[in-house]
Amino acid sequence: MAIKSIRDMTQAKHWHRWVAASIVIIVTIFVASQPASAQLQLDYAEVGVPPEPGLELLQYEPHDIVYFTADSGGGWARVLLLDFPGRRPPSKPSGDLRFTVLGIEGKPMTAKWSTIEKIDLWEVKLEREARERIAAGDFVGAYPFLSILIRDFPNQKGLRELRSNFLWQDAISRAKRGEIAPTLAMLEELRRYAPEFQRSGVVRALSGTADRLMQALVDAGQLDLAQQMLARLEVDYQNERLEAVAKWKKSFWDMASGKRDEAIKAMEAKDFREARRIAREALYLEPELPGAAALVRKIHELYPMVNVGVLQSATVLEPTRIDNWAARRAGRLMYRTLFEIQGAGPEGGEYEFIFGDTEMSPDRMHFDLLIEPEKIKPPLDGIRGHYLADVMANRAIPTSPEYFAPWAAAVNSIELVGPQQVGFNLRRPHVLPISLLQIPVDGSWFGGQPGSPTGDYQPEAMKDQAEVVRYVLRGAPKTPTQPREIVESRLLSGSDGVAKLLQGEVDVLDQLFPADAIRLSKSKKVKVVKYPLPTVHMLVPCSGHPYLAERTFRRALLYGINREDILNGELLESLQSEGCRVLSGPFPAGIEINDPLGYAYDQNITPRPYEPPLAKLLLAMNFNQMEAFASRKKEKPPEMTPIRLAFPADNLSRVACEAIRSQWELLDLKIELVELPIGHTFPGPDEDIADIVYVSAAVWEPVIDARRVLGPEGLAKSSDQLVGLGLRRLEEAKNWREVRDRLLDLHAIAHHELPVLPLWQMVDSYAYRRELVGVGSDIVSLYQNASNWRLGQ
Asked: Which residues form the Solute-binding protein family domain (predicted)?
């Protein structure tokens, strides 16, 4: 309705009463039609003033309030924002004001300016609320009002002063509560926004707060953060010359000088470990400190040592261990392997025979191992052909502790051709027989004690909970620069490792979180390199849990994991990393299209998608099957006990398993997470601590590793007849075409039978500071070239 029609009424001074009455009728009809829970507050009144809504004001649609004069009958109405030029009411209004009352948008109205006492603008109300709350110290309450003003009314008169006062008073309040870092943030924001606001007072407060925060960081040992902050403050406030900056620049110089002197004393006392640590700290504190860089170089020359940051400490040293990254990494320092994988070629892995050379007959029915002692360094030069022949023979004897079924099935006879040559006749052509001979070589091969080292290093001491393990050089160094020690320090997390690498506390990181690798690759101080062979991540059943023994139940578990989301969201943090992908089987898929690394992976088998409804249906089917089977046997169905999901004590595994648990719990399953002891990646044979375990496996040579993953003696300990048949047919393959075809068949069998639950493939990376040279860029194991490492400065 239009108020304009009221002008003809005889009692014109009471026109607004008629408007109000009309609004009452309209609103009353509307409210009466609503349930009690939806009753609305009226946006007008015939008398008085509207109540102060406080924070509830933010729930209103933006509006102005029009107050009417007492002569016209009084009262007020909330109206949609009035269209004033620049949002300023006319100084000498005349005529009519056109407006729309909130809630009655379809009924525009007009009123004479002479009947209007005042108009309370929306932005004025917001500013009033903000000022009152700032004055009362309620900065949390003031912030939303101030935010709306900044967003919607940036040209509001007095807004700059209001915003500046908010930042200043909030900083004072936080300082009184001891919130140093937030106080500094407020002061810096104030300085950037309004440098003219109380200039000297803000600068003094900023300097004092920075001083307190620097002291807190130094006291907490966070020198890297303190230095970063000091460098930033020096650049940002170079014109102000903050007293705190000058004070702490001198303090860091004094600290660095003191550490330099301490390092010299430690070096003179031949405590090279401590000397190196302190000298590196001095150089980090003050890179320009005279003599610091030369001191670090001198200590390196006297006693080369490399610090390696690791996510998992090794408690066992097994260079051929498929499921234990730490054991495989550190085992390479202590033991050599008869055949060591160097990388991947077009037809399987590329291996090096540590005692010499190999020769394969064209029909692949015979090969020789040629020992070349003149090219081998001690103690490996002590090997003899007859001993090597005996070792190979023992691996083919079923009653021998060293018996290895695939080797026994492959070899027909062994012959000692000469003192330095051993020949092998095979039962059938084998595409890669040397892959069957990845055997750790210990000191007993040369007349020493069983288990004694053959590598360049040995651990000083090994403890399950050790945070630092030192691997000390055995014997004389091969070169003057060969590290005398390789020190492994266990990290709290991947981000902790990145920080320590950047500040120089560690020289190498052996394994990076994929997202950290992507971010760290941008640093000029660090080189990030991908390992050429990926790891396959899977869940492996490891107990007699009656439900996990059922294929239908395992399928349900796999359908209940959003693998794409966990991999891309949780592990990769939405960053792109080539080669990281969800898998449909237990073999690597390769990193690039048509990658020979993926010769065992069938690209036509797509991974099972995330289907929670299907997972629940399969669970229900499995429960019904179990009940029906038990009923036929007149027994009780097995109890559905909580599933114990175990994982190694590293950050990546923990994140993945926490996500898997949360998704399985959506299927109404009870899941218990079990963190394995440090250095352990699989429950022991006599340990009943888990039902299924998260495994990161180095399935680098599927032609041999298929049995190590799926076989009765492998990770899965599968007794499935189809799996067993697939493994036997694989081992009978005579050429690479047959190998590939039978591996693809085995992939299909594993996809159907699910002896393991495939998750994803990860392309791991390592990183090192650029002053460390000789690491290599195409290494399978971090310590593959450790004897050639050299630290510069």
From this structure: 406-675
Instruction: Determine the CATH number of domain 336-446.
Output: 3.90.76.10
CA dist., res. 80 & res. 58, Å (int): 15
pLDDT above 80 (res 40):
no
Domain chopping of the chain, boundaries: 3-120, 250-303, 309-314+457-531+766-791, 336-446, 535-763
Query: The dihedral of CA 733, 739, 741, 744: what is its sign?
Result: positive
The fold for domain 535-763 equals Dipeptide-binding Protein; domain 3 (3.10.105)
* Cis peptide bond N-terminal to 154, omega within 30: no
Q: Report CA 607 to chain centroid distance, whole Å.
A: 23
Asked whether 60 and 41 are in contact (CB, 8 A), the reply is no
- At the fourth CATH level, the homologous superfamily of domain 309-314+457-531+766-791 is Periplasmic binding protein-like II (3.40.190.10)
Which of 427, 430, 450, 425 shows the shortest CA–CA distance to 440?
Answer: 450
Tokens (6 digits) for 714 = 């492998």
| List of residues 6+ apart from 392 with CB closer than 8 A | 407, 411, 414, 422, 424, 437
At residue 10 the predicted structure's pLDDT band, cuts being 50, 70 and 90, is: very low
Residues of the chain with pLDDT > 70, as a percent, come to 94
Q: At what angle do helices 199-219 and 223-236 cross, to 10 degrees?
A: 160
Place of tokens 């109405």: 77
How remote is the C-alpha of 283 from its chain's centroid? Answer: 30
**Average pLDDT over every residue of 747-761:** 97
Across the range 336-346, mean pLDDT stands at 86
